[in-house]
Specification:
Largest sheet: none
Distance between the termini: 28 Å
Number of strands: 0
Order of helices and strands: HHHHH
Length: 121
């Protein structure tokens, strides 16, 4: 990987992380509960957009910037896992199951839909 690609990933990651913070704060204002809706929505959006990028054939430097950098920082697997474990520790079994099913199943579905949309573009 060239140093230019490393720079692109860093730039994309910077803006992806800031975007995740903004979207998370926006969602948390409208959806106030113990359910981790912000992370769920962010990861589903990320799955859709990454699918669109793959389906539309974006590659090389543009994929490094948007796919690896931006989407890599925008989505968050570690926060998802931490929140899922917290639901389990708090004995919120129904929410734990719902969160996992929506995150995994929804992520796969949204990625697939994104690929199909990307092919159409």
């Amino acid at each position: 990987m060239s140093s230019f690609h490393v720079l692109l990933v860093g730039i994309g990651g910077f803006f992806g992380a800031i975007s995740r913070l903004w979207v998370s704060q926006f969602i948390s204002k409208w959806f106030v509960s113990g359910f981790p809706a912000a992370t769920l929505v962010i990861n589903l959006i990320g799955s859709l957009f990454l699918g669109i990028m793959v389906g539309s054939g974006i590659e090389g430097s543009l994929f490094m910037l948007l796919g690896t950098g931006f989407m890599g920082a925008f989505t968050t697997f570690s926060t998802f896992k931490l929140e899922a474990i917290q639901l389990q520790v708090d004995k919120r079994k129904k929410e734990f199951i719902l969160y996992n099913v929506l995150s995994y199943g929804g992520g796969i579905l949204f990625a697939f839909l994104g690929i199909e949309l990307g092919v159409l573009l």
